[in-house]
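Repro case for the chain-ordering regression, as requested:
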Amino acid sequence: MSATRSGPGDGGALIELDEATCWRLLASRPVGRLAWCQAAGPVLVPVNHTVEDRTVVVRTAPWASMVAQVDDSPVAYQVDDFDQVTREGWSVLVRGTAEVGYDASGGPEPWPAGSHAATVRIRPVEVTGRRVAPR
Amino acid sequence: MSATRSGPGDGGALIELDEATCWRLLASRPVGRLAWCQAAGPVLVPVNHTVEDRTVVVRTAPWASMVAQVDDSPVAYQVDDFDQVTREGWSVLVRGTAEVGYDASGGPEPWPAGSHAATVRIRPVEVTGRRVAPR
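-- result from build under test --
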């Protein structure tokens, strides 16, 4: 997608972000959304994450339905930030394959209570981002 | 999922939200993420929305690839809000079917520049939400 400049009063321009900027923005926020596909359509779950060696790592309970469903499957991880007043913002989307592990190391400290003995590591295939520039 | 109470120091409780609360929270925020499934896995796009008669409505360009891909297909729409400091927050997920229209009425005023002559209306099949309560 090429950047398109807008005229006055018709909203901001959408500008593509380079991959280095995407990784920097991903690491700048603690929370994103992990998405995967079921027969009935997509599911999105908000989780907190860390960025480790150009992978996104989240932790969850080993018995979470997510774990069984995402392992070795295509997933997406999305982070964004928007300002309601200025209508500026950005979003980053990591598309790749999830790899479930049960090592105690790696990943973020989970926010909700309960076991988080499983790690879901997202190995990226494509990393893209966009920014809505001010009018 | 039933609500689980946590002990001290191990994170907050995850509490399920009723559907009325989910709709109120959906209407309280201007921006969410529309997700759909491609052969290569899920895609998430942040968009702004309105809630109209228990449907979620977004606007986009009629030539956007999203329009061709989501019409009459299973999609999900997700809205959340988290506080990095207190680690409290909530999320709402609408799963349903997208219906594309080309009427000028309905939906939000789009943030980015360009044509937004298409509406994507999400007819819900399932509306769920969760809250992470303070520790």
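Ordering looks correct now. DSSP finds two helices and eight strands in chain B.
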